[in-house]
Amino acid sequence: MDNDKVFIFDTTLRDGEQSPGATLNIQEKLEIARQLAKLGVDIIEAGFPFSSPGDFEAVKLISKEVQGPVICGLARARKEDIDKAVGALEPAKKKRIHTFIATSDIHMEHKLKMPREKVLKTAVECVSYAKQFTDDIEFSPEDAGRSDPKFLFEILQAVIEAGATTVNIPDTVGYTVPSEFGGLIKSIKENVPNINKAVISVHCHNDLGLAVANSLSAVINGARQVECTINGIGERAGNCSLEEIVMILKTRPILGLYTNIDSTQIYRTSRLVSTLTNMLVQPNKAIVGANAFAHEAGIHQDGFLKYKRTYEIMNPEDVGLLTSKLPLGPRSGRHALKEKLTELGYHLSEEQLDKAFIRFKEIADKKKQVADRDLESIVRDEQRIQETVSYYELANLQIACGTGLPTASVCLRRTSDNVFLKDSALGTGPVDAIYKAINKLVNVQNELIEFSVQSVTEGIDALGEVTIRIKEKDGAIYSGHAANTDITLACAKAYLNALNKLIDSLNAGTKVAPQADEFKSKKGV
Ligand code: KIV
Ligand code: ZN
After folding, report:
1. What's the gap in Å between 410 CA and the centre of ligand 2?
2. Quick check: 52 pLDDT over 80?
């Protein structure tokens, strides 16, 4: 094996999705998994199949649809968990089962209530059991960072003997410091006699802000797989951030290590994960934050303009941030738009380009310059519209608000029979009024559980990107997104995007979709 390569194990869809509020639906997980494959990650931990039917289905769909990376499913050290992981991973060409059990005294005594011998026996039995289904087995001694190293050496030797091909060392609670964690990896190399039969992996949490530093110290000391997430999302303070560890290894060749990541896909992946999880990236976040490549102080700008290396250690282009040499504006034509989208990595069909061009012109008429981020937002918006079956489309929206009572009048086109439905409602504000008016027309019970508006670029004329999440009465969650310079329009469209998904799932499943006469609506425009 090439000993300078560091394998990138992405756990955005498993540990990342454990971030409070970051719930993703199956289609969103698939979209992220496809982008992770483009990014070039080696392994995608697609979920924890035993944890819920939704996770099981997501792992199964990703196993079927996503080629390239190894697809991994998490399982506690229990046969039922492993069986579920096996079922979900069944369609995958390259699959990995990742099984874990806690090994720190604090976890064994208070959580598992198991003595060391039982934990060791369970770990070995589960690794041997999983080995019947695939050769590629990863074992994690949970809370390794706080485990007795002697016990750790013993259990690692035993699971490698039983067939584990990767042994992952988690700092589950983000407690260790770099010298200590690096030392632990070194001691594992020195004290586990069969360690050369497995890859040493690390999985660091960020409770003390040290997840990346600890992972780096681990690879310097011999680990060759890093478990990480896009934007560093994950349980509590999150996990090691993929973009940071990857760019450290790329920017500092002195370390003599490399990854397979196509770094030019980093920015796009970060934006996708941020939009779909609705977890904003802080502006000063390394690599992908809005200010990561901005030079504000005069003295810095002066130096940068004279020689960019004075203040820039990485090229923005290397992470996929294209600094527009020629920003598009109201006079730019279809050809210029096509060229710019190709440069940004979007290859649209002629029909998609026509639609994107109409949207582009609308925005260009309102803004002097259309930024790359605006274009990405338009394209993603159009892709979403095409991916979602459209039962209702927004035909017209009128808002009255100010010091009086906010009112919204909405006209929707029902696509099944091309009937236009109109109604209006009062609300506590314009958005509330829009949602109430739409609810009168589309009588599908749901609860609005999340609503956010984010500006795509700076400036008063910026596009507003709206993300909403609604919950159906059986608990299923549907998200909706839309972007527009008029945020009330974006709100209405985002809500319809989510409602269309909900109705589609009613139609696809055994549940019955609401019939036309169930809609308390008025016909005619
Ligand atoms: O943090 C942790 O210990 C985990 C394990 C399941 C690897 O997420
Ligand atoms: Zn974790």
Report:
1. 46
2. yes
pLDDT value of position 409: 97
Q: What phi and psi values does residue 70 have, to the nearest 5 degrees?
A: -70, 135
199 contacts 234 by C-beta, under 8 angstroms: no
Per-residue pLDDT of 7-20, as tens digits, reads 999 999 999 998 87
- In the CATH scheme, what is the homologous superfamily, with its name and number, of domain 388-523? Alpha-isopropylmalate synthase LeuA, regulatory domain (3.30.160.270)
Average confidence (pLDDT) over 132-141: 98
Least confident of 54-63, 285-294, 366-375, 484-493: 366-375
Of ligand 1's listed atoms, the one at least distance from the Cα of 205 is 1
- Counting atoms of ligand 1 from 1, which one is nearest the CA of 142? 3
Ligand 2 mean position, distance from CA 166 (Å):
16
pTM, full prediction: 0.79
Place of tokens 């979403």: 384
Instruction: Tell me the pLDDT of the chain averaged across its residues.
Output: 90
Q: Which CATH number fits domain 7-277: 3.10.20.30, 3.20.20.70, 3.40.190.10, 3.40.140.10?
A: 3.20.20.70
Nearest-atom number in ligand 1 for the CA of 144 is 3
The residue whose two tokens read 């499913």 is 73
Phi, psi of 331 (to 5 degrees): -90, 0
d(CA 141, CA 204): 13
Annotated domain spans of the chain: 7-277, 291-321, 324-385, 388-523
CA proximity to 146, closest of 170, 129, 124 = 170
Ligand nearest to the CA of 228: 2
The alpha carbon of 211 and the centre of ligand 1 are apart by a number of angstroms equal to: 13
